[in-house]
From TrEMBL:
Residues 94-217 form the Peptidase S24/S26A/S26B/S26C domain. PANTHER family: LEXA REPRESSOR (PTHR33516), LEXA REPRESSOR-RELATED (PTHR33516:SF2). This is Peptidase S24. It comes from Pandoraea horticolens. The lineage of its organism: Bacteria, Pseudomonadati, Pseudomonadota, Betaproteobacteria, Burkholderiales.
Length: 225
């Protein structure tokens, strides 16, 4: 049995006495029994994602599971607190400009390596060409402030009410709420790109060039004094 799994299993039984078997641990972590058994007897033991799950769900330190050093619990009393350690980002998402996003000729057209200003870390399961943008202007206030950042997945199909990044007639990316309007002349889908700030105009794809690039999957709001 791998040492990381032995540490996890023994600690789980201490912090949650109802756990007494692999099946119990699997239910507590919302994983299959096969996954838990793989941690015990195959590969490198408990995966990084598994350690983070144990930290989030049971309060057992992910680093302690990995090396047995330091405190076993990530907080003094994980069951009686309204905060918990944040998940560690495992996926790097490039932060690009609205111009770079507008240069994507297709929804899943990759941008060249090295074009990012910086990278954001996320634990979301995203398609290969996901990217991040920084909000510019005031058209999406009050929900989205200038300087907030969003993560966008080009691999998702926009649904009514989604927030999307679209390519406009100026070959730049714009961020708006998606509202389908049926099928127009020539059999093409007609949609509107709706600002949340009513002082700004709605874009109608039947009247102005517009193409959906991707769907927002994460919003990072930064509070300023």
């Amino acid at each position: 049995m791998h040492q990381t799994f032995r540490r996890l299993f023994d600690a789980a039984k201490q912090v949650r006495p109802t756990i007494s078997s692999v099946a119990d641990l699997a239910r507590a972590l919302n994983q299959s029994e096969q996954t838990i058994n793989n941690w015990a007897y195959r590969g490198n033991g408990v995966s990084k994602q598994g350690r983070l799950l144990a930290q989030r769900e049971l309060g057992i330190s992910a680093t302690w599971i990995d090396d047995g050093q330091g405190q076993m619990l990530s907080s003094a009393d994980p069951g009686n607190t309204n905060i918990r350690p944040a998940d560690i980002g495992m996926r790097r998402v490039p932060l690009i400009s609205s111009v770079q996003a507008g240069q994507m000729t297709e929804a899943v057209n990759p941008f060249p390596p090295g074009v990012a200003f910086e990278y954001l870390l996320t634990d979301l399961q995203l398609s290969e060409h996901a990217f991040a943008l920084e909000i510019e202007g005031q058209s999406m206030e009050p929900e989205f402030k200038e300087g907030d950042r969003i993560i966008v997945d080009p691999g998702l199909q926009a649904q009514p009410g989604d927030f999307v990044v679209a390519k406009n007639g100026r070959e730049e990316a714009t961020f708006k709420k998606y509202r389908p309007r049926g099928i127009g002349a020539g059999g093409r889908e007609v949609f509107e790109l709706v600002p949340l700030n009513t002082d700004y105009p709605t874009i109608n794809s039947e009247h102005e060039p517009a193409r959906i690039i991707g769907v927002m999957v994460e919003h990072r709001r930064y509070r300023r004094r």
